[in-house]
Amino acid sequence: MTWVAAVARLRAHREPGVLVTVATVRGHAPRKAGAKLVVGRSETWGSIGGGNIEAVAIDRARELIGGPDAEPELMDFALNDKVTNRHGVQCCGGAVSVLLEPLPVVPAVAIFGIGHVGLELARILARHDLDLHLTDTRSDMLADERLGVLADAVAQVHVHHVPLLPEEVLAELAPGTHVLIMTHDHAEDAALADAALRTEGLGSIGLIGSSAKWARFRHRLSTEGGHDDATIDRIKTPIGLPEITGKEPATIAVSVAADLLLTFEKERR
User: Fold this and answer.
1) What is the pLDDT along the chain (269 residues), one digit of tens a residue?
2) 112: three-class secondary structure by DSSP
3) 3-state DSSP assignment of residue 119
4) What is the DSSP string of 92-160?
5) What's the CA gap between 87 and 43, in Å, rounded?
6) 111: β partners
7) For the chain, what is the radius of gyration of the CA atoms?
8) CB contact at 8 A, 247 and 254
9) Which 8-state DSSP code applies to residue 14?
10) What DSSP element (H or E) covers 38?
11) d(Cα 107, Cα 104) in Å, to the nearest integer?
12) Crossing angle for the helix pair 186-198 and 211-223, nearest 10 degrees?
């Protein structure tokens, strides 16, 4: 497996890792500059030359995987028989520096309802390194020409057109995915809210709407859905920052995105 494929595999499985690269080589060394190794929690892919260099790099990479707020770092190795190594002697005669770049699990967000607000929110979130799921029952909301504004997205965008039962998408989401419910249909919103509360492992759940809408939903979730108050309180409504009160779709989207970014920061800490 190539290192690119290994990085993609880690991301698809939402597993952290570290990309290890031979940054510089002076004199003789097992591999040339640019050689890469991908380290996961229990597996590795590729090689930076084996021996002590690789073993120490793997050890340090796993320490970075297990620690908070890991940042890229350089490790230097002298390859001679005078150096005491943790994993045996490498006496090629040169010197090597190795760059370790953490590959964290990126946030994941699922937007249900890609109307005016949903599309504006998708445009903002798409500029960030995250997994972004866009779901709508209306095919025209997900048409290629409409979503063309996301063509240069940094995020990995996953589009789900589900004409019926969009709540089925919830079961496909990775653990920790933050869910935002903002469809065109209050009945659809209600079904999604109920299903989201029944789906284990989700991150935050947000619902767009007024206090009157939420009062009706809360009563229905309690009486028809059988959810207790603590469970219902997992749903945040209204969504966004309370200090931003504008009603324009772009304003709401900025407010919701800013609130999500704060949530991501709390998760990282």
Assistant:
1) 899 999 999 998 889 999 999 999 888 778 899 999 999 999 999 999 888 888 999 999 999 998 877 899 999 888 755 545 554 445 555 788 999 999 999 999 999 999 999 999 999 999 999 999 999 999 999 999 999 999 999 999 999 999 999 999 999 999 999 999 999 999 999 999 999 999 999 999 999 999 999 999 999 999 999 999 999 999 999 999 999 988 899 999 999 999 999 999 888 77
2) strand
3) helix
4) SS-EEEEEEEEEPPPPEEEEE--SHHHHHHHHHHTTSSSEEEEEES-GGGG-TTTGGGGTT-SSEEEEE
5) 19
6) 134, 180
7) 24
8) no
9) T
10) strand 36-39
11) 9
12) 50
For tokens 């997205």, the residue is: 153
Q: Amino acid letter at 250?
A: A
Q: CA–CA distance from 155 to each of 111, 125, 204 (Å)?
A: 14, 7, 19
Confirm if 150 and 122 have CB atoms less than 8 A apart.
yes
Q: What is the largest CA-CA distance in the chain?
A: 76
Strands 36-39 and 44-46: antiparallel
**Inter-residue contact 163 to 134 (CB < 8 Å):** no
Which is it for the CA torsion 220, 224, 228, 233, positive or negative?
negative
* Tokens 């009706």 belong to residue: 216
Which amino acid type is present at position 245?
Answer: T
For strands 44-46 and 95-103, give the pairing.
unpaired
Q: CA-CA distance, 92 to 27, in Å (whole number)?
A: 8
pTM to 2 decimals?
A: 0.85
Alpha-carbon distances of 113 from 170, 183, 252, rounded to whole Å = 13, 4, 14
Q: Give the pairing type, strands 156-161 and 131-136.
A: parallel
Tokens of 234: 């997992």
Residues in the chain: 269
167 closest CA partner among 216, 237, 112: 112
Read off the tokens for 106: 């990126």
Which residue has 């779901």 as its token pair? 135
